[in-house]
Design a protein that fits this description.
heterodimer, A: 10 helices, 17 strands, B: mainly beta, Folate-binding fold, two-stranded antiparallel sheet, 31% strand, globular, binds flavin-adenine dinucleotide, binds zinc ion
Amino acid sequence: MGNPFPGEHPEWLWRDPDPKSSYDAIVIGGGGHGLATAYYLAKNHGMTNIAILEKGWLAGGNMARNTTIIRSNYLWDESAAIYEHALKLWEELPEELDYDFLFSQRGVLNLAHSLQDVRDSVRRVEANRLNGVDAEFLTPEEVQKVCPIVNISEDVRYPVLGATFQPRAGIAKHDHVAWAFARACDAMGVDIIQNCEVTGFVRDGNRVTGVETTRGRILSDTVGMVAAGHSSVLAEKAGFRLPVQSHPLQALVSELYEPVHPTVVMSNYVHVYVSQAHKGELVMGAGVDQYNGYGQRGSFHVIEHQMAAALELFPIFGRAHLLRTWGGIVDVCPDASPIIGATPVDGLYVNAGWGTGGFKATPAAGWAMAHTMATGEPHELNQPFGLERFTTGHLIDEHGAAGVAH
Amino acid sequence: MLQIECPWCGLRDETEYKYGGQAHVAYPEDPSALSDEEWAEYLFFRDNPKGPFAERWVHTGGCRKWFNAVRDTRTYEFLAVYANNEPRPDISSLTGADTAGATA
Ligand SMILES: Cc1cc2nc3c(=O)[nH]c(=O)nc-3n(C[C@H](O)[C@H](O)[C@H](O)COP(=O)(O)OP(=O)(O)OC[C@H]3O[C@@H](n4cnc5c(N)ncnc54)[C@H](O)[C@@H]3O)c2cc1C
Ligand SMILES: [Zn+2]
C-alpha cells in the first residue's frame, strides 16, 4: 500500500488553540473515545463551543497502541446493541469524515479449542443472529478456507475444533481514525488542546463547574472524563472510586511480509490474536499482565507465551522477525463491560472501563457519551452500562466474548 | 519480568507467582448488615493508584504462601514485602509519590 494521501496531506489537520476561560462542555482525554465524544457533541447536538483537553498528544494513549480489531459479536443484548451500532457507524465514517482510514472488513475468526469453547461459541453465534449481528460457526476445514495458514492439525496441544466467523468485522488504521475525527471536530469549531493535563476539579457543592489544568483553570458545568487507563486517577481527584483496575496490555509487530494473512484470527484459549496490517506487518496482541500498572510496559514472558501460541497456530511464522513491542494501560471492569454515564458528581460524566477492547466501540461510545453529556440522560445504548449496575447486580458479563480481549 | 522477593523463599521470577490485587480488604464483619452500596463497594471497588500500592501475591510455584507487598505501579519497583498479618509499612519516607488512593 502506498500513501493513501499522495502528496497533499497538509501539515496540520487541526488548529493548536490556547484554552478559553470557559466552554459549554469539556471532554478530558484526546484518545479515540474523547475525539468521538466531541465529534458527536458537535454534530448530533450542535454543541461546538467545547474543548478536548489532552495531557500528552492526540491519540498518544491506547488509541494508537491497539491492534485495531473491530467486531460486534458479543454475547449479551446490551453489548450487541452498542458494538453493532459502532460497526454500522464504522461502515459510514470513511465517507462521512471524508478520510480513508483503511477500514477493512476482512472478517474475524474466534477459534474454539475445547468442547466447552465450541459450545460457548455456538451459543454466541445464535445469540448474535437473534440480535441481527452477522455470525456463523465454521468447521476446522471451513476455517482453513477463510485463513489458509491456520494449522488445523489434530496433532497439537490445542487443536482448532472450529471457530465463530463474523464477515463484517475487520481492522482500521487507528492513528488515521484519530486524525479523521480531529479534523472534523476542528472544522466544527471544537478546540483540541494538547499538553493540557487536568489536575483537579472545580466544584460548587456537588456540582462540577470546571477543571484545573496545567494550562490554568477552565470553567464548564458539563465535563466528561474519557481517560481510559487513567480513569481511576481522575475519579480520585473528583472524590470517588471506579470499579476498574489498570493493567499493562502489550502488542507487537513483525517486520513487513508479503500478504499471507487475509483475515483476523483470535484465540482466547491460547491467548493470541493476529492480523496483517496493510503495509505487511503481522500485528499480534497478548493478554494483560496480571498486576496493576501504569508503566505502559509489561513483562516479557507474556510476549513469549503469546509467540508460542502464535507459532502453534501459524507454523509459517517460525522465521518471522519481531520488529517492536509496546504496551498500553487498559482500565478493566469486573464484568469486562464498559461504564458510560453519570458519576456521583453532578455534571461530571464518565466513559471508562473499556479495558482491552474499546477501539471497536469508538464511534458508538462517543455517540452515547455525547448524548449523555448533552441531555444529562443516558442514551438507550448506554443506559445498561451505568455505574448503578454494580449496586443493582445487573452486570453484563462479557468475559466469554471479550476473553483475552478485543 | 518482575523479580519478586518471597518472604520465605527469597528472590524468584514473576512466573512463579500469582497476583491477588489490593491488600488489606477485610471480609465484612456482618455481611447481612451491609447496604447494597456497601456490598458493591466490597465486591467490585478497589483502589487503583498511580504510585505505591499495597497488594497481595501468592507464591504458587514455590511455598504456596500469600504475602503482601508495596509496589510502585509507575515503575513496578517493589518498595516493601511483608507478611499478610502485618500492617502496611510506612513507605512515605521511601518515595515522594502521590500516595492518594493507596491508603486502604
Ligand atoms: C496493546 C493494546 C491492544 C488493543 N487492541 C484492541 C483491539 O484490537 N480492538 C479493540 O477494540 N480495542 C483494543 N484495545 C483497547 C483500546 O485501545 C481502548 O479500549 C481504547 O483505545 C480506549 O479509548 P481511548 O482511545 O479514548 O483511550 P486513550 O487513547 O488511552 O485515551 C485516553 C486519553 O486520556 C488522556 N488523559 C488521561 N488522563 C488525563 C488528564 N488528567 N488530563 C488530560 N488528559 C488525560 C490520555 O493521555 C489519553 O490520551 C487495545 C489496547 C491496547 C493497549
Ligand atoms: Zn515462597
